[in-house]
Amino acid sequence: MNGWLITGAGGLLGRELRARLAAASVPALPLTHADLDLTDTEAVARAVRRTRPAVVVNCAAWTDVDGAESHEAAALRVNGDAVRSLARACATTGSRLLHVSSDYVFPGRSTMPYDETARPGPRTAYGRTRLAGERAVLEELPRTGTVVRTAWLYGAHGRNVIRTMAAQAAAGDTTLAVAHDQHGQPTWTKDVAGRLLALGRLPASQAAGIFHATCGGRTTWYDLAREVFRMCGADPDRVLPVDSASFNRPAQRPAWSVLGHARWEEAGLTPPRHWRDALAVAFRSVTAEGPPARRRPDARRPVASAARSTVRALSG
């Protein structure tokens, strides 16, 4: 096999990447968790050795931010140890590795975008395990490993925060309480999939290292919800601002998840588009009701109804 191998292919981003590669006529082998348990080191080595892919994209991760606080060792096995095993397997076959990571590796206390060279400083167990995965890739594959950080993901596959907000907008005169003190970049999975494809097509020397794959600009969950209400023709004043502390969650969410994108221009690629531009194109597909998605732990919960029932947003 000279194509691509995708781990975590059943997730929000993995499914989008599968579609993007198919549209580009790039041969790919998608592996879900049922197909390959990344914590099984021998199985990972066999899979990579058998297929010998040109590019491996790791979309798999433990994304239960709160659960990682009480189960850090288990999260580390997926987000850190398993990534190192995958990187070592790629080293034996000469395969390139694109590893998807998270904004949680940063402390979230800045007021300026974190660029790709910014010093990490995770403040949660989840962030520490994600940073361990990044270091594994860069240490094991210094010339052919790529870390792709993203954040605030939404997409057409499964549950997502945009669809949740749109459903609330359509629910008559109900109000929606949303965190106003978290800043980030809503990012369409289709854009991230395109970025992964572009990186995989670059020479390894240009793509090695760290890239940030979020949309441009910045906003808050509160202002995003107001924008979605406007797009639905609903009154944005039905969205109410609340402090993140009111959600009382085990893991603290970053107040600042805004990432910089300098590496794209350095690599000769166009920087990511503004989040509003992406949302305008994505809105119809990501708010359409699809088949019910299997409930799973999610990385973020920025939204709650006025009755205090929590609505979860998906993240990469």
UniProtKB/TrEMBL annotation:
E.C. number? 1.1.1.133
Q: Which CDD domains match?
A: dTDP_HR_like_SDR_e
GO annotation, biological process: dTDP-rhamnose biosynthetic process
**Could you give a GO molecular-function term held by this entry?**
dTDP-4-dehydrorhamnose reductase activity
Xref: InterPro entries: dTDP_dehydrorham_reduct, NAD(P)-bd_dom_sf, RmlD-like-bd
Instruction: Pull one GO CC term from this UniProt entry.
Output: cytosol
Record-annotated RmlD-like substrate binding domain positions: 5-284
The record's annotation in SUPFAM superfamilies points to: NAD(P)-binding Rossmann-fold domains
Q: Name one Pfam family in it.
A: RmlD_sub_bind
Which pathway does UniProt place it in? Carbohydrate biosynthesis; dTDP-L-rhamnose biosynthesis
UniProt feature, compositional bias: Low complexity: 302-316
Give the top-level enzyme category.
Answer: oxidoreductase
Q: What does this gene product do?
A: Catalyzes the reduction of dTDP-6-deoxy-L-lyxo-4-hexulose to yield dTDP-L-rhamnose.
The UniProt similarity line reads: Belongs to the dTDP-4-dehydrorhamnose reductase family.
The protein, known as: dTDP-4-dehydrorhamnose reductase
Protein's organism: Streptomyces zagrosensis
